[in-house]
Amino acid sequence: MPFDSHIRRGHPIMFGLLIFFGIIEGAITTWLTVMYNNYNNYDSVSIRDRIRLLCFTSWWTVFFSFIYLLLFLHSASTGSILTSVASHLIFLAFTWLLWTAGVASLTAGLGGGLNCANLPRDIAYCSQLNAAEAFGWIEWLLTTLLISVVFICGIRSRRRGEGARGQLIVV
């Protein structure tokens, strides 16, 4: 089926992008967390805590996306429970909730983003905060796209009579 060839090609690409942008987001938020811990120069406790949430979420995404990528490459259509539609939906739904909470709260805390050149006062690490927000939204978008595709795969699996235990790819 043509949809299966798209899944077979697209899964590694999309999870690779999740890993790539997750490493970037993780590096930025880890650096911000270290700076905040060392110098106590955060603008507010809420921004500090939101950065910590994004730090956790980015490394969570990198770790589990790497595992799902390896599992998919190993046994995409052979019937592993870890490569099933249900497993993907559970992982992606929880990850989507973490990204939504983290990046939406950071965006709200920053007032939608910072114009570092026209601030009435200095905010420590202004550009890094903007980068963390931007890469967080990229991760959120990728996760949203992936969950939509896996949901479509779930509908196909249900129509085949396999339910949520069905694989993303039909043999």
Automatic annotation (TrEMBL):
The way this protein sits in the membrane is described as: Multi-pass membrane protein
Cytoplasm as UniProt keyword: no
Which stretches are transmembrane?
Answer: 12-31, 51-73, 85-114, 134-155
Q: Does the keyword Transmembrane helix apply?
A: yes
Q: Which organism is it from?
A: Serendipita vermifera MAFF 305830
All copies of domain MARVEL, residue ranges: 16-145
Chief subcellular site? membrane
Superkingdom as given in the UniProt entry: Eukaryota
Q: Which UniProt keywords apply?
A: Membrane, Transmembrane, Transmembrane helix
Q: What name has this protein been given in UniProt?
A: MARVEL domain-containing protein
Q: Name one GO cellular component term.
A: membrane
What Pfam families does this protein's entry cite?
Answer: MARVEL
- Cell compartment(s), UniProt: Membrane
